[in-house]
UniProtKB/TrEMBL annotation:
Keywords: Phosphoprotein. Residues 5-129 form the Response regulatory domain. It comes from the Bacteria. The modification 4-aspartylphosphate is found at residue 61. SMART domains: REC (SM00448). Transmembrane segments: none annotated. PROSITE patterns: RESPONSE_REGULATORY. The keyword Secreted does not apply. The keyword Phosphoprotein applies. InterPro entries: Bact_response_regulator, CheY-like_superfamily, Sig_transdc_resp-reg_receiver. Pfam families: Response_reg. This is Response regulator.
């Protein structure tokens, strides 16, 4: 059975630890990886794809050294291998133009502004995970505990 990954990309270790700890309730079902740069994330994405596993979701900060979060998510959006991968931009420093680029060029699913509420982030992650699993045709029963039940019901109608 293929593994399902969620990648968290953030250059501030403390913020990255917070995101990972807020998503820890999912780690019985999915693998949560932490990356401190877009470059590290891209290397990990290649490893996961080469192993034949799934990248369900990337949660990225915007302002990071080297490549920005919008650039990372745009690259992912334009790579046909990851057409179903969901994307969240989690930032406090994106300009109006950055936000427009994130929507129009990276196809983000959610924009979350810092500081965020843990339950809001977790709800959005569960919703996107539900959409990803159904869209990929992955057997959803093993993930029922963490899926968005209302979204799942609507997708299965």
């Amino acid at each position: 059975m293929e593994k399902i990954y969620i990648l968290c990309v953030e250059d501030q270790r403390e913020v990255l630890n917070t995101i990972a700890s807020q998503l820890a309730v999912l780690d019985q079902h999915v693998i949560i990886e932490e990356c401190e740069s877009a470059q590290e994330a891209q290397e990990l994405i290649e490893e996961i794809d080469t192993a034949g596993d799934f990248i369900a979701l990337v949660i990225s900060d915007h302002v990071m050294p080297g490549k920005t979060g919008v650039e990372l998510l745009t690259d992912l959006y334009n790579d046909g291998r990851f057409g179903d991968t969901k994307k969240i931009l989690l930032t406090g420093q994106a300009t109006h133009m950055d936000t427009i680029k994130a929507i129009n060029q990276a196809g983000i699913d959610f924009y979350i502004e810092k500081p965020w509420k843990a339950e809001d982030l977790l709800q959005k992650v569960c919703t996107l995970l539900t959409i990803f699993i159904i869209k990929k045709g992955i057997e959803y029963e093993p993930f029922l505990e963490i899926l968005d039940k209302e979204k799942l019901f609507n997708l299965l109608k």
